[in-house]
Specification:
Length: about 280
C-alpha cells in the first residue's frame, strides 16, 4: 500500500518551461495581421481635430475598423455596449452603424483621448503590449497542455504508438463503440459526454486517462477530485475498463483531503514522480 502523504510530498511546484509565460510567436502573428491598419491609425496620434480626422481616415480606409477592438483589449469583432439609449451591438468586421456613431464609440471608450494626448506613440507597439497581456490569460490552458505533453512523452517512451495502442482525446461514446464497453454508469445513460485525455488499449483492458497539473489552489481542485472519485467508484466493477488519473502540482496541498479521498479508492492514481519510476510499464502495460 502506498502512503498518501509520501506520495503527495513528491508533487512538483511547477512544470513551466521558458515558453509557458508568453507565446510571443502568437503575439507577433496577431499583430502582423493588422499591422497595416494600425500604421494607418498612427496618423491620429496627437491630432488636434481627432474626431474629424478619424472620419476622413475611415472614409479612405474603412478597413481600419477591424483593428479597433484590440485597442480596448478585445479580440472579438462583435461588442455589446449599454448606455442611456439602450443596447448597442457593434460590428467591427463590417460597419452596422454610421461613422458618427463609431466616433461616439471611440470617444466614450477613451480611445480618442489615448491617441490625441499622446499617451501612446505607436499603435503597433501598443497592440503588441495588449496582445502580450491577453496571452497571459492563456497560461492556464498552456499548463494543461504541458501536463498532457509530459504524460504523452512517457507513453511514447514506453513503446506505445499513437493510433495503434494509445489514442489521444477520445470521448466516452468513441471508447464504447471502438471496444464495445458500456460506460453508461459515468455518462448518465449517455446524457453526458466526457473526453479522456488519453486511452491506452492493452490485452483485454482499456485504460482511460485524465491528466492535470495545479500550481495554485481553488474550488476547481475539490470539484475535480470529487468527480474523479465518482468515476473510480462507478467503474470499479467493470472488468475491461480502468480509470487512470495522473495529476501533480502543489496547488493540491490546500485540497489534500479531497485528493486523499480519491487516492483511497482509485487504483491507478499517479504523479510525475511515478512516471519517472516507469509506472506506465509497470502498471498499464
Amino acid at each position: 500500500m502506498r502512503d498518501f502523504n509520501t506520495w503527495l510530498a513528491g508533487f512538483k511546484s511547477s512544470i513551466a518551461g521558458y515558453k509557458y509565460f508568453t507565446d510571443f510567436e502568437k503575439v507577433y502573428n496577431n499583430v502582423e495581421k493588422i499591422k497595416v491598419e494600425l500604421n494607418i491609425m498612427n496618423s491620429l496620434i496627437g491630432s488636434e481635430f481627432i474626431e474629424s480626422d478619424f472620419m476622413q481616415l475611415y472614409k479612405r480606409y474603412p478597413e481600419i475598423l477591424k483593428c479597433i477592438p484590440i485597442l480596448i483589449a478585445k479580440r472579438e469583432m462583435d461588442i455589446l455596449t449599454i448606455d442611456s439609449d439602450g443596447e448597442h451591438f457593434w460590428n467591427f468586421r463590417q460597419a452596422n452603424y454610421s461613422i458618427e456613431e463609431y466616433v461616439t464609440f471611440m470617444k466614450e471608450t477613451g480611445l480618442f483621448e489615448l491617441m490625441k494626448n499622446k499617451h501612446i506613440h505607436n499603435l503597433v507597439d501598443y497592440v503588441t503590449g495588449v496582445e502580450t497581456g491577453l496571452d497571459s490569460n492563456a497560461r492556464k490552458n498552456r499548463g494543461g497542455h504541458l501536463m498532457e505533453d509530459i504524460v504523452e512523452s512517457y507513453i511514447v517512451k514506453a513503446g506505445l504508438k499513437k493510433g495503434v495502442n494509445y489514442f489521444k482525446e477520445m470521448y466516452i461514446h468513441e471508447v464504447e463503440q471502438k471496444w464495445n464497453i458500456d460506460l453508461s454508469c459515468i455518462s448518465n445513460n449517455n446524457q453526458m459526454e466526457k473526453r479522456f485525455d488519453f486511452v491506452i488499449k492493452r490485452s483485454n483492458t482499456v485504460y482511460c486517462i485524465e491528466t492535470n497539473f495545479y500550481t495554485s489552489s481553488g474550488s476547481k481542485l475539490n470539484e475535480t477530485a470529487r468527480s474523479y472519485k465518482n468515476i473510480a467508484v462507478e467503474t470499479m466493477k467493470l472488468r475491461n475498463f480502468k480509470f487512470v488519473w495522473i495529476t501533480d502540482g502543489q496547488g493540491w496541498l490546500s485540497a489534500r483531503n479531497n485528493l486523499k479521498e480519491t487516492f483511497d479508492v482509485l487504483e491507478h492514481m499517479y504523479n510525475i514522480q511515478d512516471l519517472d519510476e516507469d509506472v506506465i510499464n509497470r502498471k498499464l502495460i
